[in-house]
Design brief:
Length: 318
């Protein structure tokens, strides 16, 4: 009987100073294949779908650098993901930096290999355009998915400057392509100004549950997440987290900041509230390091990705 191979562990700060070594996500080993992995961090350094401030192409690199301080055990939840999951960093998808149209199938093809290996992808964006090609790969394996979507914007535009693919359109296209179980879609943190009073009517008409930011100011989101878990049940679920869902006071390094957003504790409540869902993929998008020289936005993004890892199925809590 072959012994179970040891699980990958983040490189300890006692073995190598945290400012040293290779800047992989959580200081995990790098891997060339998803085979044998339960989950993997993947960068998609694409920002040619953005409509305002660019720079999210640098998000994956900065998030990895800021993840160096994160340790393997979640003191708040008791989650010890590396006890039960084999996790590695699969590097970046080699997108075509000059063509959005050509980049989408490259992304889908990369993720098809990941999900077909029964590996759950945890994505470092990149702008929110990338959610569409990732969903195409995930749904090809799991069928239409439930969605927990944290964002300042609904991203359901029919087009932007006449283009049907951009960071403001992925979930309109996802509905049209039957990628979503629309009665199990929650969009949390929506806010800001719009072009018309009916801007949010289209997603509601599809069956989405919208939770505008102003309706949850100063509130714990634990009751909301209990509702989310009840409504989604055991359906395969994708978690898509745009960093601009959080107020720019905490996460100013993003392309389309909107005031009046979620607090960091609320963001943690949302992700921790996904514990028990059948998560089949997660992303953290729209971190634009050039607009936050402190690194705080990328640091927050790195921690939120760790929290996502901690709520994946099969993660043991001590």
């Amino acid at each position: 009987m072959n012994p179970t191979p040891p699980k990958n562990q983040p490189l300890s700060g006692n073995a190598m100073p945290r400012f040293g070594g290779i800047a992989s996500m959580l200081r995990l080993p790098l891997a060339n294949s998803p085979e044998g992995l339960d989950a993997a961090f993947i960068g998609v350094p694409l920002d040619i779908g953005t409509s305002h401030r660019p720079g999210a192409r640098f998000g994956p690199r900065q998030i990895r650098a800021e993840s160096a301080l994160i340790r393997p055990y979640n003191m708040a939840t008791g989650a010890a993901p590396f006890d039960t999951l084999q996790v590695a960093d699969l590097g970046d998808v080699p997108i075509n930096t000059y063509s959005l149209e050509k980049s989408l199938p490259i992304i889908t093809g990369f993720y098809e290999q990941v999900v077909n290996a029964d590996c759950i992808p945890l994505t470092l964006g990149g702008d929110h355009t990338i959610a569409l090609p990732i969903l195409r790969a995930v749904v090809a394996k799991h069928g239409p998915v439930a969605l927990v979507h944290v964002d300042a914007h609904a991203d359901v535009n029919d087009d932007m400057f006449g283009e049907r693919i951009a960071h403001g359109t992925p979930f309109r296209r996802a509905v049209e392509e039957n990628l979503l179980d629309c009665r199990k879609v929650f969009q949390i943190g929506l806010r800001g100004s719009g072009y018309a009073s009916d801007d949010f009517d289209w997603p509601r008409a599809q069956g989405f549950t919208l939770v505008p930011a102003h309706e949850i100011w100063y509130q714990s989101l634990a009751p909301l997440m209990a509702k989310v878990r009840q409504q989604i049940g055991g359906a395969p679920c994708y978690l898509s987290f745009d960093i601009d869902g959080i107020d720019p006071a905490y996460a100013g390094g993003t392309g389309t900041p909107e005031i009046g957003g979620l607090s960091v504790p609320q963001a943690l409540e949302i992700i921790r509230g996904c514990h028990g869902l059948n998560l089949v993929g997660c992303d953290l998008v729209e971190v634009s390091p050039p607009y936050d020289v402190s690194g705080n936005t990328a640091l927050l993004g790195a921690n939120l990705l760790f929290e996502m890892l901690c709520v994946l199925p099969r993660v043991r809590r001590r």
